[in-house]
Amino acid sequence: MAKLCVLGGGSWGSTLAAHMARKGLSVTIWEFNETQAKRMSQERTLSFLPQLRLPDSVKITSDMPAALADCDIIFSVVPSEFLRSTWRQAAPLLGPVRLINSFTKGLDQNTLQRMSEIIIECYPGAKEKIAVVSGPS
Predict the structure, then answer these.
(1) How far apart are CA 118 and CA 43, in angstroms?
(2) Which of 120, 103, 36 is nearest to 128 (CA)?
(3) This model's pTM is above 0.85
(4) What percent of the chain is modeled with pLDDT above 70?
(5) Is there a contact between 77 and 10 (Cβ–Cβ < 8 Å)?
(6) What sections of the chain are H helices per DSSP?
(7) What percentage of the chain carries pLDDT values higher than 90?
(8) Disulfide check for 103: which of 65, 77, 81, 84 has CB 3.0–4.6 Å away?
(9) With contact defined as beta carbons under 8 Å apart, do 62 and 37 qualify?
(10) Residue 102 phi/psi, 5° resolution?
């Protein structure tokens, strides 16, 4: 079974995680805020999206090494202003990854790079394994 790590425990990342868990994948959400991660683990929902119930099988942690351990697929769903710092932290922790999906919209305000370009800059192994999901908000 593929192991998926969702980087970003907001509404979009949590919705994707819930959907993929219901499809049978082993899913871990990395939420940067430890208090929020603990609350999500206990309550299985988000205070700002109470209608979403996270399946019990979804693991939630603020421990990035634990979240990324042995993952095959990464969904990158962190806000654009935190993408570079998140990927600088994540890249040294990654082993072989089959696929990286970037769900973060926008451009870097300083460099005008796309989010996928930032991911590749931080983790060159992503170059041949990255997909981008975009669309209207």
Answers:
(1) 33
(2) 120
(3) yes
(4) 99
(5) yes
(6) 11-22, 34-43, 64-68, 80-90, 115-122
(7) 91
(8) 77
(9) yes
(10) -95, 120
pLDDT of residue 47: 87
Q: How many CB atoms lie within 10 A of CB 10?
A: 18
Q: How many CB atoms lie within 10 A of CB 36?
A: 16
Phi, psi of 69 (to 5 degrees): -60, 120
- The length of the chain, given as a count of residues: 137
pLDDT on residue 91: 97
Report the first-to-last Cα separation within the chain, whole angstroms.
Answer: 32
- Is residue 69 classed as helix, strand or coil in its secondary structure? coil
Residue 57 contacts residue 21 (beta carbons within 8 Å)? yes
Q: If you average pLDDT over residues 111-134, what whole number do you get?
A: 95
Q: Helix, strand, or coil here: 33? A: coil
Average pLDDT, the chain: 95
Task: Name the nearest CA neighbour of 53 among 75, 76, 21, 7.
Answer: 21
Q: What Rg value do the Cα atoms of the chain yield, rounded?
A: 14
Cα 109 from Cα 87, distance rounded (Å): 17
